């Protein structure tokens, strides 16, 4: 089941990149998704995928709220933090984690460290003094 989720993720990325749902593009997308090299074999739980997909759904309204906050009250303070990658993350789940962090306007992942850390840039409102 989880292997199908990887295939769906690859196809979703393909369709987001091409924005074309013609028959030829669907055939090309499925071919590319199947031909891409496989991942190293690590156990993935379906609940991990569902949890991340839930986070993606929650990130959409959060992105709108953060965008309005930045428009109404500009954020001038920046910081770079290191966030730990959750345990047992496969490349597909790491990609979705980075997507969720970067999707919101106040945060962006600058770098993924192989040791298990995300380098995250955040903007924050200025502290009141």
Key descriptive features of the protein:
129 residues, alpha+beta, Ribosomal Protein S8, Chain: A, domain 1, three-stranded antiparallel beta sheet, 4 helices, 3 strands, 54% helix, 18% strand
Structural write-up:
With 129 residues, the protein is α+β, with helices and mostly antiparallel strands. It has two domains: 1-38; 42-129, Ribosomal Protein S8, Chain: A, domain 1. Helix content is 54%, strand content 18%. It has four helices and three strands; from the N terminus they run H-H-H-E-H-E-E. The protein has a three-stranded antiparallel β-sheet, covered by helices on one side. A hairpin with a 3-residue loop joins strand 2 (107-113) and strand 3 (117-124). Helix 1 packs across helix 2 (23-35) and helix 3 (46-72) runs parallel beside helix 4. The radius of gyration is 17 Å and the shape is globular. The termini are far apart. 7% of the residues are buried. The model has no long low-confidence stretch (mean pLDDT 83).
Strand order of the largest sheet: 1-3-2
* CATH level 1 name of the largest domain: Alpha Beta
Secondary structure: number of strands: 3
The share of residues in extended strands comes to: 15-25%
Radius of gyration: 17 Å
Keywords: Membrane, Transmembrane, Transmembrane helix
Protein name: Na+/H+ antiporter subunit E
GO molecular function, one term: monoatomic cation transmembrane transporter activity
Transmembrane segments: 12-37, 49-72
